[in-house]
Amino acid sequence: QVQLAESGGGMVQAGASLRLSCAASGRSLNTYFMGWFRRTPGKEREKVGAIGYSGPGLVWPDSVKGRFTISRDNTKNTVFLQMNSLKPEDTAVYYCAAGTSLALDDYRGQGTQVTVSS
């Protein structure tokens, strides 16, 4: 049974940085894509990043490019999302996910709340 456990969320002011971590347990996900989604009430789920075993990481949408970076540590079965210059519109629950394709539809974590105040 694979479990994904996110950490690193919190409440910050606009312009601050946060680093989300997601540790996988139960099996190695080295052959899987890992990444992040976010969901805001009233909006559809949005993919914000994905990375394969050896990278490079990809981030979406355009509003986070240049501010968010995704990386992974395969020795620790962990994926990270570095979020810089946070904006109030980045407020959401961020979910870690993994899959055999960029759809990341095999495993999903419980989510961690990120709140950015203006």
Structure in a nutshell:
This protein is mainly beta and 118 residues long.
Low-confidence stretches: none
**Total number of helical segments?**
0
| Rg (C-alpha, Å) | 13 Å
Proportion of helical residues: under 10%
End-to-end gap: 40 Å
Strand content: over 45%
**Could you tell me the mean pLDDT?**
95
Largest sheet: 7 strands, mixed
Order of SSEs, N→C? EEEEEEEEEEE
Helix and strand content put the structural class at mainly beta
Number of strands: 11
Please state the overall shape, judged from the principal axes of the Cα atoms.
globular
Structure description:
There is one protein chain. The protein is mostly beta strands and 118 residues long. The protein is globular. The chain has no helices and 11 strands. The chain starts with a strand and ends with a strand.
List the helices and strands and how they pair.
Blueprint: E1 3-7, E2 10-13, E3 18-25, E4 33-39, E5 46-51, E6 58-59, E7 68-73, E8 78-83, E9 92-99, E10 107-108, E11 112-117
Parallel strand pairs: 2-11
Antiparallel strand pairs: 1-3, 3-8, 4-5, 4-9, 5-6, 7-8, 9-10, 9-11
Key phrases:
single chain, 118 residues, mainly beta, 51% strand
